[in-house]
Amino acid sequence: MRTCTFLFPPSLSTHQSTTILLAPSVRKLFADTLVFAAMHQLCIYRRHTYFVLSLFFFPPLSFCYFCLLGACCCRQLKGKGNFLEEDFFFSFFPEISTRKTERERERESSHSQRAMGGITQIEADPADTTRYLSPTVRFRIPDGDSESRPKTALTTLTLLGVIYTASISGGYGLEESVSAGGPLLTIIFLFLIPFLWGIPVSLCVAELSCAIPSNAGPIMWVNVSCASWFTFCTVIWTAFLNFVDNSIYPTVLADYCATLLHLNFFEKTLIKVFFLGICAIINIVGVQVVGTLSVGVMLVTLLPFLLMFLLQLPYGFDWERIGYVPENINWSVFLPVVAWNFSGFDSAGNVIEEVSNPNPTFIRALGLMIISALATYIPPILVGASAEALAETPFDEWDNGFWVKVGEAVGGYAMAVVVTVGGVISTVGLMTTLLATTSRSLAGMGTLNAFPYLSGWLSQYDPKYGTPINATLVNAVVTCLLSVFFSFQTLVELDQILYCLRLIAILVVFLELRFKQPFLERPYRAPGGLIAASLWGGVPIAFSVVLIVVSMFGSVVLFFGTVVLVVGTMVISYVGVRFFRPEGFAGELVEEYEDADMQTYGTVLEHESNEWRKTHPNHTFIDCEVSEDKGGQKHN
């Protein structure tokens, strides 16, 4: 006969299901708030544009949202709870808890009696349809991704450097937002966007990255929860986004050099090739070098703005000029530029497998990143608006490179040189980090077997350095071609549309897994239950939709280009998967069964059905032994 023993490693035997009991009074409070907000905005904002904006700007729900966020942060700082614990959000409300139901307590007591008194003493109740073994859903790593795993080399500080250089890397590029919306509106949105976009996206990415750890990042997250054709859509959007976003920075660097040295097209091309070659070599050597380099780049890019702020501090700030708001705000330029300066929060998911102790490290790095971003963006705006030498300069003349003029106004030519050098180093560091994260994303596409005949080659990691050398080389070559043949403006316009499309896909996956996979093993959870998760995912989705709409209506060409991009990728993906990849892509979620009392009592449970055992003879947590039956015959 076959003897099946359930073996539970200690790290995998701590799952306990919980039930959220939402009091009627609290349900009514949330329902009344939502209904009041919807009716209030429907009556006031009749035009569709303002109604879309009201989705995330209406006062009642926004007030609740920011109160929730502030309370979580305060309690985290006071040490009264983990910011990402499952029960943390509901600890604020006495009537809401994640306590076990009476039925679950009876089941636990029954398990204890079986463990201490013997399994055969208590027979299972046939009328009780509740399974004694509750399923835990885990991510199964594809076979092609298990041979050469990345090294765990990133700590909190180096991960902070990677995220900072991938999403911030100095205040360079922020000038045009001041030109389009004025300093006051820019500062307000710089404070709001981290809460509307940065922090919620970070929480969602943290949960998905730890629950589904893969260097494929968003592509793997979409793959395990959505249809195959939508996975291929995400593959196309991500591939285009990686190449387009990477190609912006060599173009910026070459344009700066051409302005100073009066270079021609051929000389600019040589600079781009040399620049990308150096970045590719650094990435091939290893991500630890990238992480260490990112920390240095972060400090160097922060230094010029800190010096400008300290030089202006003795002279005070011109608050009247800082509070200026133009009569005609160019939203199609202002909103995408401000949002672009906070894009890239999800890039950390591509290196989550290379983070030492990812659970606390990831969250600490994200919190420090928000503080670093505000310290980078706010001071130069205050200095530029308050510098006496620039008092007569209108804000609509602020364009790329204006920080050099601000540095010269407060610190002379030497300060202007420092700002310029900081801009060059910022571009180099940002390109190096983005090449690291996007190359691992490209290698992750190979892990999914998204590209026939190329997937295995792309997903290979160098055995010596532990880096995806083939994906890095392909990434560098395609990035170089785009930067040579496309202009900066065209690349930036495409970048924001593609980024928002992929971000919406990520957040939709987060919400779908929260609602449809409650037993998914999540080493870290975004705080709260389904209501809070709806806020973490819904608010940035609404903001991303508004950003796409605003960007599309800024240009007729961009509008039709976006429509063709979205519809075209969906049609191509559906047809391609339907006829060429009906089996889907590698990577899936699987159910595994365990019991919380196993670790405590060491009990061997034999109550699982024989049908389940027959269909899972080689399951990971089943040790099948060969024994003799009464007839003396052996069975496998």
From TrEMBL:
The chain crosses the membrane at residues 50-74, 153-172, 184-208, 220-241, 273-291, 297-317, 366-390, 410-436, 469-490, 496-515, 527-550, 556-577. It is a multi-pass membrane protein. It is found in: Cell membrane. GO terms for cellular component: plasma membrane. PANTHER family: ACID TRANSPORTER, PUTATIVE-RELATED (PTHR45826:SF7), POLYAMINE TRANSPORTER PUT1 (PTHR45826). This is Putative Polyamine transporter 1. It comes from the Eukaryota. GO terms for molecular function: polyamine transmembrane transporter activity. Keywords: Cell membrane, Membrane, Transmembrane, Transmembrane helix, Transport. Belongs to the amino acid-polyamine-organocation (APC) superfamily. Polyamine:cation symporter (PHS) (TC 2.A.3.12) family.
